[in-house]
Design a protein that fits this description.
Blueprint lengths: L9 E4 L18 H7 L7 H19 L11 H7 L8 H15 L5 H11 L4 E5 L6 H9 L6 E6 H4 L6 H11 L6 E5 L2 H10 L3 E5 L15 E3 L13
Parallel strand pairs: 1-2, 1-4, 2-3, 4-5, 5-6
Helix pairs in contact: 1-2, 3-4
């Protein structure tokens, strides 16, 4: 039986919760003030930093859930300038708080995920299509640290295009870059609605990384392959 990935010429991947984890660290128990101080912030007290970051997170999450924002998604800086808890702060503090937010959004790539990416790259061109709210800088640093930056021919970040998945715009950027028909491209992601559904609508193959074992609901698009961990993909067989 042939390997599943050998049915395709190009592999595109989501990033967060697909091969990058410990990301989106927002909510109770997060010490945003410690991050602020580590960035040399001194003007704000712990309560103010926490209020702003939590309010910012809630504003961005609300927009991400609104279909009207899929193709017109504001940057973190835009959200901060419009945030009632932050609008009176000087520019330096807004810049620091944007950096605090980015530190808590970014994650890490474990060695086993890096190994899986190297195995995929051995036979296929790779690209990333990923929703990120902050700028790409910390993600590029983590890709380089993990030794996988040069594995990707293309990196498509939502924050560079002011839109977010499931908008088809980000997928189309990648398809245009590689210049192959959608049926010859497979997309790998963990989110049925933001990853699997748009890939299938465009005629691409789709792999669902079921890393928390939640079931698919009846209204979700059916993936072509289901795996529990990216390390399974290089040797997964068609029909598995």
């Amino acid at each position: 039986m042939p390997r599943f990935i050998d049915n395709y010429r190009v592999i595109l991947l989501d990033m967060g919760h697909t091969f990058l984890f410990e990301c989106d660290r927002f909510g109770p128990g997060q010490d945003y003030f410690a991050t602020y101080r580590a960035l040399d912030g001194t003007a704000l007290d712990p309560a103010r930093v926490t209020i702003v970051i939590e309010s910012l997170f809630n504003d961005i999450l609300t927009d991400q859930r609104d279909p009207a924002c899929y193709d017109d998604f504001r940057t973190v800086a835009d959200h901060l300038r419009d945030n009632d808890q932050a609008r009176d702060l000087p520019a330096r503090e807004l810049t620091l708080l944007e950096a605090v937010f980015a530190r808590h959004e970014a994650g890490t790539i474990a060695s086993r995920h890096a190994q899986a990416l190297h195995a995929l790259r051995a036979t296929h061109p790779l690209g990333v299509i990923s929703n990120i709210w902050s700028s790409r800088d910390l993600y590029l640093e983590e890709l380089a640290r993990a030794g996988v930056r040069d594995l990707f021919d293309l990196l498509v970040w939502s924050s560079d295009h002011r839109c977010i998945k499931p908008s088809p715009r980000l997928f189309q950027v990648a398809l245009d870059h590689f210049g192959v028909p959608p049926r010859e491209v497979v997309y790998v992601g963990d989110n049925p609605r933001r990853d699997i559904a748009p890939a299938k609508r465009l005629g691409m193959g789709a792999v669902w990384v079921r890393n928390d074992h939640r079931p698919l609901s009846p209204d979700h698009a059916a993936p072509d392959l289901v795996i529990d961990h990216l390390a399974e993909l290089p040797d997964a067989r068609s029909g598995a």
